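Hi Y.,

Following your request, here is the sequence exactly as I used it, all 194 residues.
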Amino acid sequence: MAQRDTGTEQLIKDTAKRIFFSEGKLHATTQDIADAAGVNRTLLNYYFRSRDILFEQVAAEAMAEMKAVMDSVFSAKIEFKDKLHKLIAVFMDQAMQFPYREMYVVTSLNRGDKTVPEEKKIKVKAFLKEISEEMEKGKIKKMDPRQFCMNLFALMAYPLITSCLNKSIYTVGDSEYLKLMKERKQLIFDMIYQ
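Below is the corresponding structure, written out as tokens. Let me know if you'd prefer a different format.
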């Protein structure tokens, strides 16, 4: 039996990930991916048999990467202020690199394809407790900690998910918009933490 070329397989996955989650072409064909990767479609099909298999594998790996990065922030034993700063930076960096991944997650949850694991709910509950403690110290405006989280993630995700609309409305190019998003990390922190 022939040995698989893991370099080619990884090239195809990396290309598919870029096309799906960076460029937002969630319905790209195997031919689109093969062309972008510089391989023929037969080779792509050898490794993944179908576009759906490739998409599911790439999506699962992308979600695992994001989970690992976010879990490291949520479980960090650091001051809340530092944790919040790091959370904003990590989330924004990931979302700038793969803005359509968040749309995929939301769409999957809406379709009922995915559920939030209990482990994640436990980490969120602990984070909500940390938020409540910061509110009691007067570092964050008092509100339902869930509202705080929803506000935080809306401030981070929405401008990235709507980047095409924003670029058009404000007449900015990709590099200028990226600069705005990098500046936004500190602006969000300054807005929500006193």
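The first helix runs from residue 6 to 22.

Thanks again,
Q.
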